[in-house]
Amino acid sequence: MSVDIKKRLDRIVEILIQMQSKRVVRAQDLADRFDVSLRTIYRDIRSLEQAGVPLIGEAGMGYSLMEGYRLPPVSFTKEEALSFVAVEKLAEKFLDEASAAIHASAMMKIKAILKSQELDLVNHTQDQIIMRKQGSPIFQEKVPHVLSYAIESIANKKQVQIDYQGIKDDRPQLRTIEPIGIIHEIGFWYIVAFCIEKQDFRQFRSDRINRIQLTKTPFSTRHMTIGEYLEAKAQPEAPKVRAIIRVKPEYSSYLRWQRNYYGLVDEIKHADHIEMHFDVKDIKHEFPRWLLMFGDMIEIAEPQILRDNFINLLREISLKHEPKI
């Protein structure tokens, strides 16, 4: 069998699996996924129809399988089976207790159809991967189902009540929210929701939710999607300021882990130092405060305003900690 024919057969089988996993599949989405033309996808669809697969084509919508048609159980490659290990470990660390239990149950069903060789491989590898818990808990112990409730709310479009303690709150505040999506960033989950009390969209961090309760109350109105929310939230960035820092080669490794976050754009090696160029968003507060950690290792070459802000911070710290006579 030629390589091209094998690739086409693999793609056709994958298209069939995609159709079984979704109610409707768009031809353009399939073309994007497999990096082929629409014409190729249409040819593959015709091949499935000629093979007796009952497909329904909806104009302007996509393709779907006739209700009741199902594939026999599929087998997994060794690489696919091993990928389950990583996913299971990530679930243990990043999902709440209820969602992790649901995921574990699903994984048990998947493992049940693995061949004995792949199953032994998965079980052996599982013990070799350890996910350490992060310093700050992602969820409070008394609310072990934040994610599962939020997901259920999004699916059923029913309101959720939470006791939420924002960064400026002395105690948890009762909020009624209508979640539209969930985001994971900077080590935490955020429920993006329309807040009834504030009459606006807010992001609620998972570790600040003290109580969560599903209600039977439908959403008050139809909301934008999470994609539309993120697009609307993205504002044009303010102009950045170019900053140049000099550091001795033996000390440059201390700046390595966070330098990209603070806008590193270039690094030039000289005989006696390394010159780091940054495009800085916050030249007044955030960037000079980060540089304070390496104050004895670096030299600020430019701009002058960064040197001034850095020196002013040092003066404020010095004055605050001078002995009082």
From TrEMBL:
<dbReference type="InterPro" id="IPR057727">
    <property type="entry name" value="WCX_dom"/>
</dbReference>
<keyword id="KW-0805">Transcription regulation</keyword>
<dbReference type="Pfam" id="PF13280">
    <property type="entry name" value="WYL"/>
</dbReference>
<dbReference type="InterPro" id="IPR026881">
    <property type="entry name" value="WYL_dom"/>
</dbReference>
<dbReference type="InterPro" id="IPR028349">
    <property type="entry name" value="PafC-like"/>
</dbReference>
<dbReference type="InterPro" id="IPR001034">
    <property type="entry name" value="DeoR_HTH"/>
</dbReference>
<dbReference type="InterPro" id="IPR036388">
    <property type="entry name" value="WH-like_DNA-bd_sf"/>
</dbReference>
<protein>
    <submittedName>
        <fullName>Predicted DNA-binding transcriptional regulator YafY, contains an HTH and WYL domains</fullName>
    </submittedName>
</protein>
<dbReference type="GO" id="GO:0003700">
    <property type="term" value="F:DNA-binding transcription factor activity"/>
</dbReference>
<keyword id="KW-0804">Transcription</keyword>
<dbReference type="Pfam" id="PF25583">
    <property type="entry name" value="WCX"/>
</dbReference>
<dbReference type="InterPro" id="IPR036390">
    <property type="entry name" value="WH_DNA-bd_sf"/>
</dbReference>
<dbReference type="Pfam" id="PF08279">
    <property type="entry name" value="HTH_11"/>
</dbReference>
<feature type="domain" description="HTH deoR-type">
    <location>
        <begin position="8"/>
        <end position="63"/>
    </location>
</feature>
<dbReference type="GO" id="GO:0003677">
    <property type="term" value="F:DNA binding"/>
</dbReference>
<keyword id="KW-0238">DNA-binding</keyword>
<dbReference type="InterPro" id="IPR013196">
    <property type="entry name" value="HTH_11"/>
</dbReference>
<dbReference type="InterPro" id="IPR051534">
    <property type="entry name" value="CBASS_pafABC_assoc_protein"/>
</dbReference>
